[in-house]
Design a protein that fits this description.
The complex is a heterodimer of chains A (about 110) and B (about 120). Chain A is mainly beta and about 110 residues long. Chain A has no helices and eleven strands. Helix content of chain B is about 0%, strand content about 55%. Classes of the chains: A mainly beta (about 110), B mainly beta (about 120).
């Protein structure tokens, strides 16, 4: 059973508008959440993260919101740019022994149209 | 990002071949990881090395054999693979520090095709 779910396989927005990517999780032991961006033929690139003790983290055009009671996080990109077109992965961290384990969603493909 | 380098980028091999994937990190991290990404599936963690010691094996078949000779290098040795092992194999590294939160950094992956 998937512990991290991204229910929208794709999202299309107009340049300059807001992009909102969503992620749900089931494991309340996750303590750190990350968003990665992936272009074709490249590896995932870290974008932004949030600790489970916070509800918002902002970095330039990117803001991540965490709602622990709903086990939901979202990534807001505003304003969206064509260069933001990529696959976005949500990931959540759990600890097993002394090891960090990231659990990933399947990704959402964002297309920003000029 | 050039912090984590993987070679080769593409690999085609028969089921009876033996090959190795290589990963090198230049970030001074103390943990390295192998992930597998199959079509339409999320990234799946295969192996974790903390300070060169393997600490996680997630029930990976023995035809995959990891090796971590030092904190900067990680190998994945492959032998008698199956067609369903065709996937993108990603290496990552991170600095483990339970007092803080540090992201994992990924290489660009090796695209593996089993004939």
């Amino acid at each position: 059973d998937q512990q991290v779910k991204q229910n929208s396989p794709s999202l299309s927005v107009q340049e300059g508008r807001i992009s909102i990517l969503n992620c749900d999780y089931t494991n309340s032991m996750f303590d750190y959440f990350l968003w990665y961006k992936k272009y074709p033929a490249e590896g995932p690139t870290f974008l932004i993260s949030i600790s489970s003790i916070k509800d918002k983290n902002e970095d330039g055009r990117f803001t991540v919101f965490l709602n622990k009671s709903a086990k939901h996080l979202s990534l807001h990109i505003v304003p969206s740019q064509p260069g933001d077109s990529a696959v976005y992965f949500c990931a959540a961290r759990a600890w097993e022994g002394g090891s960090e384990k990231l659990v990933f969603g399947k990704g959402t493909k964002l297309t920003v149209n000029p | 990002e050039t912090g984590v380098t993987q070679t080769p980028r593409h690999l085609v091999m028969g089921m009876t071949n033996k090959k190795s994937l290589k990963c090198e990190q230049h970030l001074g991290h103390n943990a390295m990881y192998w992930y597998k990404q199959s079509a339409k599936k999320p990234l799946e963690l295969m192996f974790v090395y903390n300070f060169k010691e393997q600490t996680e094996n997630n029930s990976v078949p023995s035809r995959f054999s990891p090796e971590c000779p030092n904190s900067s290098h990680l190998f994945l040795h492959l032998h008698t693979l199956q067609p369903e092992d065709s996937a993108l194999y990603l290496c990552a590294s991170s600095q483990i520090d339970r007092a803080g939160n540090q992201p994992q950094h990924f290489g660009d992956g090796t695209r593996l095709s089993i004939l």
